[in-house]
Amino acid sequence: MPHTVVAERERDALLGQGFLAVPSLFTAAEVAEVAAELDRLFESFPALPATSVLDLGATDGDFGADVPEILYPSVLSPALRRSAVFRRSRALARQVLGPGTWFRFDHSIRKPPGCGFETVWHQDRVHKRSGLAERRLNVWVPMGGVGARDGCMRYVPRSHLGGVLAHEEVPGRRGALRTVGVDESAAVDCPLPVGGAAMHLFETVHSAHPNLGEGTRTAWILQFTRPRAVVPAASLAHQGIHRWRTRSWRSR
Questions:
Q1: What is the pLDDT of residues 209-220, one digit of tens each?
Q2: What CATH code is carried by the domain that includes residue 137?
Q3: Is the CB of residue 227 less than 8 Å from the CB of residue 238?
Q4: Is residue 101 left, alpha or beta, with left meaning phi > 0 and alpha meaning psi from -120 to 50?
Q5: 146-168: per-residue pLDDT in tens?
């Protein structure tokens, strides 16, 4: 049996609604351990490999000043993979998705104080490159308490049931693809205290507010995947393709 991290009713709510907010998944000390590693990486942002960094802000802004993003921070700082936050997130993903679930990807997004950039509405699946059938779960862990003013996550309930929706490029934003026609009146904000986490399925339409607060909002996002056909060959195919692409990405 998978290790139980959330109650079965919470798991059912996640699968039914497409998202879940858990206010007390980690201790403050466990989050602080991760925050220290991420702070160290963001402090050296200009010196990180070009393939490890993005900026999700304005196309005409100073790179790294608007919404800096670090790809695969757990590769740059292996201590993140040893953290309690990582281990519990992985156990959670295995409880939700089932046997054969494995860690696929992580990134960290930072919104400085007064950052006016929202994370546009989108589905993660729109960025999927592999044609392999799979399920994925994203675990979004803020390094401090967050509300709507500070850049918390927001979701459209049951939006994961509608398949891949139409997306459009966002003028003036780096690499942003926005879901077309989102009914924001149906959206649910997910404020969290320190130690909380929000999670969503691969097809769930989601966004994050701008950070209009006075503190820096940093989040670590971990993605886990499971082949829809859980047989050894399917799992090996998924992991083999992922490892090949990861090596290719790192060598660029």
A1: 999 999 999 999
A2: 2.60.120.620
A3: yes
A4: beta
A5: 999 999 999 999 999 999 999 99
